[in-house]
Each structure stands twice: as structure tokens, then as C-alpha cells.
Amino acid sequence: MNDSSGLRAAIRATSAFRDLSEDDISFLIEAGDLRTFEPDAILMAQGEQADAVMLILAGEVTVTTDSPRGVIPISTIRAPCLVGETGALAQLPRTATVRAQTVCTCISLERGQFNRLMEGFPELHQRLSAIAVERLRESSKAVTAALLV
User: Fold this and answer.
1) Residue 136 contacts by C-beta under 8 Å, 6 or more apart in sequence?
2) pLDDT digits (tens, 9 = 90+) for 98-119
3) How far apart are CA 49 and CA 47, in angstroms?
4) Where are the extended beta strands (E) located within 14-90?
5) What pLDDT score does 129 carry?
6) Whole-number Å distance between alpha carbons of 69 and 50
7) Most CB within 10 Å of its CB: which of 22, 41, 93, 107?
């Protein structure tokens, strides 16, 4: 995954980034921080400052949220996918915890760099907003179901 062609293919396979130009993909690779997380590692914790998004290139993560009744599982997400976009878009603390289930390879992109990428590709903002809304719906359903038990 460290070679540029492998990174480019994984980025293109992510629905939000499928239409990025080669220059935008180069920017994402150069501006981002390539990271690897071992199983059970926390990529993002609920409540922390949303200062970056992560493009998961390989692996699987679980998304959970804390409640008065304990931890509520929201979803399991497989690469390629983007996580952390809700907090970055809204400039709010993280609404959920994202934990690696398998070894995960990710590109972490700071919010400022993420915003710069969106400025050059306005359609990306619309796509990510739609993803964020759908994820908030999933989260609401899971929390409601867990609290009704």
C-alpha cells in the first residue's frame, strides 16, 4: 500500500473521492499522513476535537457511541471509506469512537488540508454532507434501539 499506484487505486475506490483529479489525489497523498493501526486501536474517540479525517485504505473498523447504558455499536465499515467527516464538516467534537477491527492502513488528513481539498472540488462537500447525514441517521437508529431494550 506504500506505492503511489496502490494508494491512488484505493483512493479512487472510495466513493467520495472517485472523481478527484490526479492533482487532487496527489495533494491528498502528499498532505496526508499514512498511518497503520493494529486491531483494537482507537482511530478516533468520541468527544475529542475533530481535527482530521481518515481515509481508510485497507482494513475494517467499528463505530460505537457512548450512552448512559454503555457503549452502543453503530456500524462496521470496511475499506475503502472515509471516517471523521461529520466532525470535520461541522467543526464539532467527535460524535462516535472508531476502532480498528483488523490491521488498518489510513491516510489522516488535517481539517485545514481537508477543507482545501473541498474548496477545489465543491461536489465533494455535497457528497460528504450526504454521507454524514446518513451516518447520523444510522447512529440515531442504533441508539434509539439500544435505549428501548
Assistant:
1) 86, 95
2) 999 999 999 999 988 888 877 7
3) 7
4) 33-37, 42-44, 52-58, 60-67, 70-78, 81-83
5) 66
6) 24
7) 107
Q: Cell triple for residue 109?
A: 488528513
Q: Is 59 left (phi over 0), alpha (psi -120 to 50) or beta?
A: left
Domain span at 138:
4-148
**Per-residue burial over 72-93, b = 16 or more CB atoms within 10 Å of its CB, e = otherwise:** bebeebebbbbbbbbbbbeeee
SS3 117: helix
Grid cell digits, residue 91: 467543526
pTM over 0.70: yes
Q: Answer for the pair 95, 142: CB distance below 8 angstroms, yes or no.
A: no
pLDDT for the residue numbered 113: 86
The structural domain count of the chain equals 1
Angle at 108 between CA 135 and CA 100, to 5 degrees: 60
Residue 84 has pLDDT above 70, yes or no: yes
Find the CATH number of the domain harbouring 118.
Answer: 2.60.120.10
